[in-house]
Amino acid sequence: MGLIPPVAVPAARLPAGGVPGPGLRELLSADARQVAPQLLGAVLTHEGRDGLVSVRITELEAYLGPHDSLHPDPGSHTFRGATARNAPMFGPAGHLYVYFTYGMHHCANIVCGPDGTASAVLLRAGEIVAGEELARRRRPTSKSPKDLASGPARLATALGITTADSGRDALGSPFRLELPAEPALDISSGPRVGVSGAGGTHDYPWRFWLSGDPTVSRYKAAKARPA
DNA sequence: GATTTGATTGACT
DNA sequence: GTCAATCAAATCC
């Protein structure tokens, strides 16, 4: 049925032992739908003035651009072209695209695809693997360690990422990104969370998560617009 | 210049 | 399950 073929199968497997820096940048320069599953299990670290927090990624979503991909992505911030906000998505792979939403939340993406094309993966959830005490201080409302980064805004808050970090390189200080030594074995995929319109349907099954992981956020459909 | 909306979360019934 | 919070960016007129 779908006009949009479900892509989503990783074309390449990671070599055992992970990928060194330059190879990582190259790996991230692929289509976000290929990159996303490979980033499951990866660890993103941010060392700020107040300390270090590391998150092991357990859930993410791929977003594409209007013209660089085979099919336009109506769920993407770049669907209607480049703006001041989404500019980093058109930049080099490995950099951050951070946006502010609902008047209070920050969400972080890692830019994918070659420089000049719009593509990124939204970091939706993770497990705190270092700096849990600092993460707790940043997220005092969390009732359980599993809640510290279980959601895109929660993850960004736990890592101390804001729009000031948008456009910065996630592969260089004060950030660090490490791929898992072994690719994730049990990956699930499905429609993206909170995306209204066609981009949130099964025609765009570009949400990926580690099957059964307790830190994965609960699925929530986009709020339906009243007629 | 005015209005709408949102890649969400947390509190509450 | 429902809903308010809160404001920048995008969209509308």
From TrEMBL:
The keyword Transmembrane helix does not apply. It comes from the Bacteria. Gene3D superfamilies: Methylpurine-DNA glycosylase (MPG). One of its GO terms (molecular function) is alkylbase DNA N-glycosylase activity. Its EC number is 3.2.2.-. It holds the Pfam family Pur_DNA_glyco. SUPFAM superfamilies: FMT C-terminal domain-like (SSF50486). Keywords: DNA damage, DNA repair, Glycosidase, Hydrolase. InterPro entries: Formyl_transferase-like_C_sf, MPG, MPG_sf. The keyword DNA damage applies. CDD domains: AAG (cd00540). Belongs to the DNA glycosylase MPG family. HAMAP family: 3MGH (MF_00527). This is Putative 3-methyladenine DNA glycosylase. It comes from Arthrobacter ginsengisoli.
